[in-house]
Amino acid sequence: MCTVDTPYVTGYMDIGRIFRLNTPANILDFPEKMSVIQGRTLKLNCKAQGFPQPKITWYIGNIVASHLKDSDIRITIYSLADGGQVNSFLAIRDVSEEDSSLYTCRAENSIDSGLSVVYDEESVFVHVRENMIEPNEDEPGMGKLLIPGERLVLQCNTSECPHCTVVWFKDDKLLEPMPGHLEIYEKNNSVLIEQSSYNDSGVYVCAIDRKQLDVALNATIVVQSKIKLEKFEQSSVVVQGSPLELYCLAKGAPMPHIKWFIGDEEVDDDNERVKLLDHEGLKKGKLMIEEADFQDRNYYTCEAYNQIDSVNATIFIRIKDKLAALWPFLGICAEVAILCSIIFVYERRKSMTQCDEPDTDLPTDNKHHRDQKMKGQDVRQRK
Known about the structure:
The protein is mainly beta. It folds into three domains: about 25-130, Immunoglobulin-like (Sandwich), CATH 2.60.40.10; about 145-225, Immunoglobulins (Immunoglobulin-like); about 230-320, Immunoglobulin-like, CATH 2.60.40. Helix content is about 15%, strand content about 45%. The protein contains three helices and 29 strands. A hairpin with a 2-residue loop joins strand 2 (about 10-15) and strand 3 (about 15-30). The chain is elongated. GO terms for molecular function: cell-cell adhesion mediator activity.
């Protein structure tokens, strides 16, 4: 006789025959996804194998389900064993939204005469839905995230009512196909948008009318998007006494909320100098100071946020003296005045110099001409 000893397999062997082979507990079958309609019965099955035969324990959240069974008559737990395999079932009748939780199956056994316990476990989140329509949300109750420019697919699964078709609505209006942009497929109850944009965000509803069922059923898919915020320039100059206006141009779904900061301080709604106004349907989308002053020189930050995203943009505002624009003009005027003064003085001195010049400075021809003229005058006087 020999002994086989491996990390997880022990046993005793005789020549040509195995008397016992110990194997750790291993879960073979367990659902990866699970949802159930409100008011119906939740059924979970966990199949495991191992030797000695594994013991299966169910958990609802962090609580052992068998402990809840005593106080909740809706819960049923039972197991069926077959050799080294065991099937365990957990059922909850008349489920409600409160039964949405993480359900865990743990299979455990001992392979070394009780010295240590080996276990394997699997978990699944069970979502309790209001009706038989199951939307393809990214996470139950979280809707779909829209990325502008990429494909967006919305679908309502009606597998529990294969003959049912749905009608689509967006923001309470009947959704119609838009060739080249939006298509509606009745075969799988889906909406396809090839290149989505921010305008495609909103509240979509797929509905089954009363003609197909005794009751009207619908499911909602909220299509959300991250925020797109136009960035400010690095800095800007405002003339003293002029209006200072800044716009926070943000897009997103749900509609972003806006906060303004001057330096590190948030702007209050009751600030008398700094006014926060609505702009293009965005509350507080505009910041305005009617008459900017030197004290308004600072960093201005717009922060846009919603349930899924938060972004910001900052600009530095410089305040320019209101007379600063006149200085170049006044400088030019001063230069012209000085130049005119120089020209006037120069011309005046030049004219005075010409009047004071002696006759000897005249050219010889001019002097001879003047002498001849004087002689002629003397002759006429003698006659």
